[in-house]
Specification:
Oligomer: heterodimer
Number of helices of chain B: 18
Shape of chain B: elongated
Number of strands of chain A: 14
Strand content of chain B: 5-15%
Strand order of the largest sheet of chain A: 6-7-8-3-9-10
Order of helices and strands of chain A: EEEHEEEHHHEHEHEEHEEEHEH
Helix content of chain B: 55-70%
Order of helices and strands of chain B: HHHEEHEEHHHEEHHHHHHHHHHH
Largest sheet of chain A: 6 strands, mixed
Number of domains of chain A: 2
Largest interface: A-B, 33 and 25 residues
CATH topology of the largest domain in chain A: Rossmann fold
Helix content of chain A: 25-40%
Strand content of chain A: 25-35%
Radius of gyration of chain A: 25 Å
Distance between the termini of chain A: 34 Å
Shape of chain A: elongated
CATH superfamily of the largest domain in chain A: P-loop containing nucleotide triphosphate hydrolases
Number of domains of chain B: 2
Chain lengths: 307, 451
């Protein structure tokens, strides 16, 4: 079942269209990657989901209900552009943001203490925000964002400003949140983390959704029927072993091995290529070349530009 | 609503604890005193109407002694006081100066009757002319009697002391029915100055705080986190109200502190220091009221209230609080809108002009109004919401028809509802707009976005 649905959502500003009939479905307990080049309209969509701005057209549903103001307490949002009041004390500040999200003073205190212990930052409580480094401030923001245990979490570029160790801590926390039942919308330009975390994605370009679905299915859809092979040196050309149904995309060698990437024609299977080679070559490895999300992103966006 | 309270609480608490707040609270009463100097200077700029003062001099000492000034023309008449007063009401003359004759004594007092409140410059002019004339006459009498003897020489030594004269000039304000009201010009002027100035300063100081607060939220990028929990309008209103409460707190502390300082000085220099008239007047009222309440005499209570009403302290106090808050709310909304539209302090300038000009204008008009509270200038500017808080407050202590206050108040309410509406529309777009140099045309577009 979909936790969050947008239906033909459009947003126009004087002179330009930020979103053009965008429909997405975010399945419950998934990590949903919201991708797209800069200025594509991702932030507008996220703001509409958070009810910070309203759509000009279209409908939004939270767990089947029309999105209303009461739902925002069940959403946690970590914006890309985020900051804190510099002069406030860390604990006081976290309390303020927690209570704005509807937590009682008591609940907020208990949960904050828990999280501060978990991240081992209890000693920051009475420091001023301006005394913390940027990464430390980001941690506070992350805590405050998840503190009220929302059903839907929206992270916009959550890893910027973190060192690799903290990125891993954060990734673990995000996965744990999903295990505990949360649904996560995750917007980023870091395709590696998309592959690592996301189950579903939607790609928005120039205010339109141009691709969406399960990550696995998309990868399948964009596979190119190409294989990479490494093998021992042999006298002769690789092409002499193959007919014109096989295309050698790339070929090379180093000190002890040779390698090649070969695309096979539609209708053929991996074993057809293997059969041709296996008699002559000492094969060390044989792998299908799957497109990375990065490749898919670039090719889809370029294709869209061409239109 | 609960969320707005949280915002108000944060705005209030973080500001109250600031060092600058504590410093201002202590310096405030001192700054207030210095703030008097500027209006005094500006007060020399007056309307330019020439007003007629009729002189009814029973002593005959001062005939032709008052010379026409830039503002006043003196006419001398011989008739009885009652006719003169009636004529003052009929002919549209400004004031009547009555110098009564006293048997066997040197004239030392006069009464100034006027439909309107005579300014302090007229009073001091009359006082000066009268003292000089009386001193000259006294000197002449003394010299005439002089015979050169030991005794006389001693007496001559004491001459300066002998001829020192203090002219007592009380003023009577007359209303349409010909009744007389004793008014205290100086009291009124002080109240008028102080309340106008405080409103002006309050708007400027705390309006600027709203501006900086909104800009801080925008530039530190905290705003998007907050507006995902509450509506932008709630955040804006919370900030404006929170800062208003900081202002009221500061004002209250100023009053307490000023009162404490003044009382301390009065105790220390009980004889040398003339008590500030404002305070005396207020204290007299209070004493009378308490006495009356204690005695439980209905009639007496009624009379005390009548006196209070005649001086309109209730009107002054209520309207002070009203115009104080109304003016702040009107301007604070505009300051919030400006803060939301810009990215840095330097960008604020182009939008500050239309906000600061009416404020400056209002304090200049207020200073003219103190000298001519019923002039056309004062009347109109006490109706326009952008200037009315300061100008109306400068007029009210002199007695303004109640319907004028109501109209002005209603216009001010409409005014701040309008500015808040405008500000809210600019604000909700502006706070999320980064890196864009905003023009007036752009602001107009934001105003017309539907949402």
């Amino acid at each position: 079942m979909a936790l969050f649905v947008t239906e033909n959502v459009s947003k126009h500003y004087a002179g330009h269209t930020a979103l053009d009939k965008v429909s997405i479905e975010v399945p419950e307990q998934s990590i949903f990657g919201l991708l797209g080049p800069n200025g594509a309209g991702k932030t507008s969509l996220i703001r509409i989901i958070n009810r910070i701005i309203g759509p000009d057209e279209g409908n939004l549903y939270f767990k089947g209900e029309k999105l209303q103001q009461k739902h925002i307490y069940r959403i946690g949002y970590l914006p890309e552009e985020r900051g804190l009041y510099k002069k406030m004390r860390v604990g006081e500040h976290a309390m303020y943001l927690a209570r704005l999200k509807g937590l009682s003073k008591r609940d907020a205190t208990i949960r904050l203490k828990e999280w501060f212990d978990k991240f081992d930052i209890g000693s920051w409580w009475n420091k001023r925000v301006e005394e913390l480094s940027k990464g430390m401030q980001q941690k506070i923001q992350f805590i405050v964002c998840v503190l009220h245990e929302p059903e839907l979490l929206i992270f916009d570029e959550p890893f910027t400003g973190f060192d690799p160790i903290n990125v891993n801590i954060l990734k673990d926390e995000i996965l744990k949140l999903r295990e505990n039942g949360a649904t996560i919308i995750f917007s980023t330009h870091n395709m590696a983390s998309v592959e690592e975390l996301c189950d579903h994605i939607a790609l928005i370009d120039r205010s339109k959704k141009i691709l969406d679905g399960k990550v696995k299915e998309i990868k399948n859809q964009y596979r190119s029927n190409a294989y990479s092979i490494t093998f021992d040196h042999f006298d002769g050309l690789l092409s002499s072993l193959l007919d014109d149904r096989f295309e050698i995309m790339d070929e090379g060698e180093d000190e002890d091995r040779r390698f090649a990437n070969v695309r096979i024609a539609n209708g053929l299977e991996s074993k057809d290529l293997l059969e041709k080679l296996v008699k002559t070559l000492n094969i060390h490895s044989y792998n299908e070349i799957l497109p990375t999300m990065n490749d898919i992103f670039i090719s889809v966006v370029k294709e869209n530009e061409g239109r | 609503m609960k969320k707005i309270l949280l915002v108000i609480q944060r705005e209030y608490m973080t500001r109250i604890r600031k060092r600058s707040f504590i410093v201002m609270t202590i310096l405030g009463p001192l700054l207030m005193a210095s703030a008097f100097v500027i209006p005094m200077y500006l007060a020399t700029l007056t309307d330019g109407e020439k007003r007629v003062v009729e002189v009814l001099d029973e002593t005959g000492w001062f005939y032709e002694k008052f010379r026409d000034t830039d503002e006043f023309e003196f006419k001398y008449t011989v008739k009885d006081l009652e006719t003169a007063k009636i004529e003052l009401l009929e002919n549209d003359e400004f004031a009547l100066l009555y110098i009564p004759r006293r048997e066997l004594t040197i004239p030392s007092s006069g009464i100034l009757y006027s439909m309107r409140q005579p300014g302090i410059d007229l009073k001091s002019y009359i006082r000066n002319v009268m003292s000089k004339e009386v001193e000259t006459q006294k000197l002449r009498i003394n010299l005439n009697e002089m015979v050169l003897s030991e005794e006389d020489r001693e007496r001559a030594m004491k001459l300066p002391e002998l001829i020192r004269t203090n002219i007592e000039l009380s003023t009577m304000k007359m209303d349409e029915t010909g009744g007389e009201e004793e008014t205290f010009t100086e009291v009124m002027m002080a109240v008028s100055f102080v309340s106008g100035m405080i409103i002006y300063m309050f708007i400027f100081i705390f309006g600027a705080q709203v501006l900086r607060g909104v800009m801080e939220e925008k530039t530190s990028r905290i705003v998007e986190v907050i507006v995902s929990s509450i509506k932008p309008f709630q955040l804006m209103i919370g900030k404006i109200v929170g800062i208003a409460m900081v202002g009221l707190t500061q004002f209250l502390l100023w009053i307490i502190l000023t009162f404490a300082i003044v009382s301390a000085f009065q105790l220390a220099f009980a004889d040398q220091m003339p008590g500030p008239e404002v305070q005396m007047a207020v204290m007299q009222q209070d004493a009378g009221l308490t006495e009356a309440l204690a005695s439980g005499d209905d009639q007496q209570i009624a009379r005390v209230f009548e006196i209070i009403n005649s001086i309109q302290y209730d009107v002054i106090l209520i309207s002070f609080l009203f115009f104080f808050l109304g003016g702040y709310l009107l301007y604070a909304a505009l300051f919030a809108a400006i803060g939301s539209a810009v990215d840095s302090e330097t960008d604020t300038q182009q939008f500050m002009m239309p906000v600061t000009i009416p404020l400056f204008l209002s304090i200049i008009i207020a200073n003219i109004a103190v000298y001519n509270p019923d002039g056309q200038l004062a009347l109109w500017f006490s109706m326009i919401p952008l200037t009315s808080p300061v100008v109306m407050m400068a007029r009210i202590p002199f007695g303004v028809p109640i319907e004028q206050i109501w109209i002005s108040a209603a216009l001010l309410i409409l005014g701040f509802i309008f500015t808040t509406w405008v500000a809210a529309r600019i604000y909700r777009t502006g706070i999320l707009m980064y890196g864009k140099k905003v023009s007036y045309r752009e602001l107009w577009k934001w105003l017309t976005y539907k949402n």
